[in-house]
Structure formats: C-alpha cells, structure tokens
Amino acid sequence: MVLTMDGAGEWATTSVALGKGNRLEFIKEIHFPHSLGLLYSAFTYYTGFRVNSGEYKLMGLAPYGEPKYVDLILDNLLDLKSDGSFRLNMGYFDYCIGSTMTNCRFNVLFGQPARKSEQCLTQFHMDVAASIQRVLEQVVLKMTRSLAVETGMRSLCLAGGVALNCVVNGKILRDGCFERLWIQPASGDAGGSLGAALAAYYFYANQPRIVNPSSDSMHGAYLGPEFTCADTEQRLQAEGAVFTVLDDRCLIDRSATALEEGKTLGWFQGRMEFGPRALGARSILGDARSPAMQSVLNLKVKYRESFRPFAPSVLREDLMEWFELDADSPYMLLVADALESRRWEMTPEEQKLFGKPSGAPAVQSLSTPVST
Question: How would residue 204 be classed by pLDDT, with cut points 50, 70 and 90?
C-alpha cells in the first residue's frame, strides 16, 4: 500500500494506492482544501515559522510543550472520522482566498494573534506545537490502522511532505499494523522528479519492476554529483584556501581525534544526498557524548534556533543497545526513544529548563531521529 500525504498535489492532498508489479491502482483520495499538510502548515505560520520550509521546526519545537489544545483542534478545526478520513473547517483558514494561512477566527479560538518571526517563542507556542503534532499523529494512525484492515496489506510505503515527519513515522512503525515500512527519502516536492521518471519507465515503457529485497534501489539516496580529489584541490587553490591533503588512514585518525577533543567537522565525500537530510556525504559531525555539542552546533555553526535537534548516527549492529528500535533507518526518517537504561534523570535545575529552548540538550536526549 502506498499512502501519500502532502499540502496539495493537483487536487489530491491524501491518496491511497495499491502497488502490484509495475502498476499502481489508486483507490482513495482526499481533495484540496482538506489537507493534513496544509493543516500543519497553518500552525507553522501561526507559530511564526515560514510555510513550506519551517514545518520541521514546528516538529522540533513540539517536545518542549504539552498537548493542551488537542481537543480544541479536534472540536473546532477538524472533522475526523473513525477511518482517519477528515474535513477541515475552512471558517478558520485563509489559504484558499487570502494571503495568510489562518484568519482572525483562528486567533480568537487560541486567544492570541499569530507570532511574528522576530518575536520570542513562549510556552504557549510550544504547547500549540505539541498539540498539532499530537493531532497529526492521531489522524495518521487512525488512517493507517483502518487501511491495514481494509486492504489486508502488510507492507506500507509513505510519500509526500507529511512523510518527512519522522515522529509520526516512528509511531506508525511501532503501532505494528504493517510488517514493513518504507519512506521515500525525498518525499517532498523534490521527489516528484523521481516519480515522473519511474512513471515513464513503468507506465509508458511498461518495463518490468525488479526488486532485490537485500539491497536499496535508492543507493542510500546518494544520487547527486560527486567530485574527485583533484577537482576539489583545484577549486580550493583557486579560492586561495590553505589546506592539507591526507591519505585515508591519516584522515580518519585526525578526524577521530578532533571529534574526541570536542571539535566539529565538515564532512564531504562521494555523491551528494537526494532529499532534505544530510546522510553522511555532506554533513556536520560532532561528538554525541558532549552535553554542549547540540547548542554549540546550533548557535556557533548553523546559526539556528537552539531547540533544533541533531540525529545520532550509530552502527546498525549497535542500534538496539541504544534505542527502542529494530529496523533499518538509513534516511533519518524514524524517531525512536532512547533505551531507558541510556537515559539520565534530569536534575531539579534541568527540570526548570523544560519548555525553554535553552534547555534543549536535557529534553532532546530522550527522542530523536536515528540514522543507521
């Protein structure tokens, strides 16, 4: 079964298809303006982030809040059925006819106007983020549970911008309605190029679909350009950069030592990743053991909000020693809880930081996207 959820395609915002061989048979759709992606984007706008690029910030902010407004959302903004189908109450949204995502009625419902990007985040905004994240999880889980029963399918493929919500994905996996879960790593708009190529290959050229269960046909999503060492040296020389060329053994030793000393590395190798996540070919690396590393990377390297998380990267064979997860996660699209034995109890001082972005390391250590 293929479940696609996004802001809007042509008119479909949610679609269900059954895949067999080289064909997809679409069996259900929900159409614009009723959209999980646009619902989430409305709250992205309301909490002061940029629509179509700030949704991952809203997801990252959610763990710092309490889902206090779930009932308010379900009672007023969303008509949710038992099978996960839904309709939005368009009286609270402006994206069909106006220039903003929400309107004055939305502001009155939540008791505050939409946050401006330059305004400080408050506990209210964190609670709103937690609430819409919880609602999204409830809707998607109702949908996947119902579809699993209806179709009898045991394998699920997710695509669309909503499939980049790795918290939801982790809950679908743990829910157990499907034995196998695969998420398109470039499942936002960029993935349309891949979908068009595959549609031409299978639907129009009628080529056979050959699947090797032991390999990843996405090749780790390393589908972009690559550069030779000689080309890189030439470009650095042209910029007047000062650099040293090391052999592989020396490079690994120097890098490991630098990480152990608390330094950060810019890592560049092989072909570029396709999709929104840095998967090791174009990545910033730091020592996950350092309590300060998350803040240092956010504030001094990436210049972004202090609550934004980073993904730990672990060897596949060590995964279950650290996380409540026993599934491949090569694309940073699953959130898993850390094993209870690996967690630490927060001090009273750290407890006081809960809900404040500056307290990110203490909170974010409990649940984070995993890459294996």
Answer: very high
